[in-house]
Amino acid sequence: MENLPFKILKLNIHDDCPQELIEPTQAYWELNEELKFKFNPEQIKNKFSLNTDVSRYGALEYETYCFSCSSEMQRTARSRGNLNGIVGYLKSGNANLKCNECKAEERRKKRKEKKEKDRKLREQEHRKKEESIERVKLAVEEKAWRRLTPFEFNVLKKCLTLDSFFKLTQFYWNKFQSRADFKKLFTALKNIADKDLLLLEYEFDHSLGFNKTINYKYIYQLKEKFEYDYMPEKEEKNIKNGINKDKSTSSSHLKLKLTKNDLNQHPDAPKYAGTITFKEEIIIKPNVQYTFAQWERSNNELYFTLMPIEDIENLPAQKRLYQEPQELQEVITEFFNEMGNNLKF
To answer: Is the entire prediction scored with pTM above 0.70?
Structure first.
């Protein structure tokens, strides 16, 4: 058949083929110009007056080529079905036969691509983990536990003191004795994690059809700086009565991470871009002197902070800083150096 990458080489007659079956075997494997068998098995039996199957006594060698490197390939069809399959595949127009060397190269390429994909996934997971730790560090620095409800605060306190997810669930199950009330624990854990104070681990439960919490983690700074004696019930009461109302719901400090703009394709595009949602009100007042600083962190990202100068610890109480510019400069420098040293991002 013209333009078909297929060539018959020879018919191999097996050594155990009886002499009287050689000719029937040759007829069994004979092809026409369309590469179709001339005789079906029944015609072979009738033509040679046979009552035996001759299909097992022969194998047809043929030649085709590798569609990748164009090298010649010699193969053997040991059955009519095998030969019909390869001919039909070549006629389909979708054939993509490959030699063993090209198949091996393709496997190596796929392994390399998978390795690279896995590496990128690991880097992505590592970057997400680093970003999570950064958020947790900021939450600890900002004492985000003061924004928790009394119940959530006590759950976080138990997380730190029990230091065991099993003991935590056991404690609250014994306390609630009700599945409906017990669910409050997991709602509280999620809210605490949303405020970046805990990192939760999940596992998909096929019987329930959703991810369930199986563990929690926290950074050691949280356990060290957590205010175990803090009384959220009293604070909540003060807020309701209008006392110290802005203490836990607003801040005069602006702290954020400037993330690198991965979509930076245009020459006028910003180097840093992203979105941010503040979890409390940030108050910046007019006619108040502020100081700001910026640190370069991992992945070429920046950490930026802005705060009133009067909030810096150890400023001389007896003088305004604008009256002592040199002293102010020294205090601010020392403060930010110490702060930057503690930002282990």
So the answer is: no
